[in-house]
Write a structure and sequence with these properties.
single chain, alpha+beta, Rossmann fold, two-stranded parallel sheet, 4 helices, globular, dynein intermediate chain binding, DHC, Dynein heavy chain
């Protein structure tokens, strides 16, 4: 199980960008939540600074920019803060 989790952890940035892009393109005013439950790699979370600051835009390595819409929310539930 730990190997499977490690495999997915390496690709979390890809999965997150796909989910965020899909939600940004959804129509309607219903709330849209992306929930992270579990440990978060410090190097990966560093790349989310622009999403969590006033810009609210995810900038990918390809320079693609995905804006967090007014109805989108991110929730991080982690076991501890260090």
């Amino acid at each position: 199980m730990q190997k499977a989790c490690a495999k997915y952890a390496k690709n979390i940035h890809i999965l997150f960008s796909v989910i965020m892009r899909d939600q940004a393109n959804m129509t309607g005013n219903d709330p849209k939540w992306i929930i992270f439950d579990g440990d978060i790699d410090p190097m990966w979370i560093e790349s989310l600074n622009t999403v969590m600051d006033d810009n609210k835009v995810l900038t990918l390595a390809s320079n693609e920019r995905i804006a967090l819409t007014a109805h989108m929310r991110l929730l991080f539930e982690i076991s501890n803060l260090r």
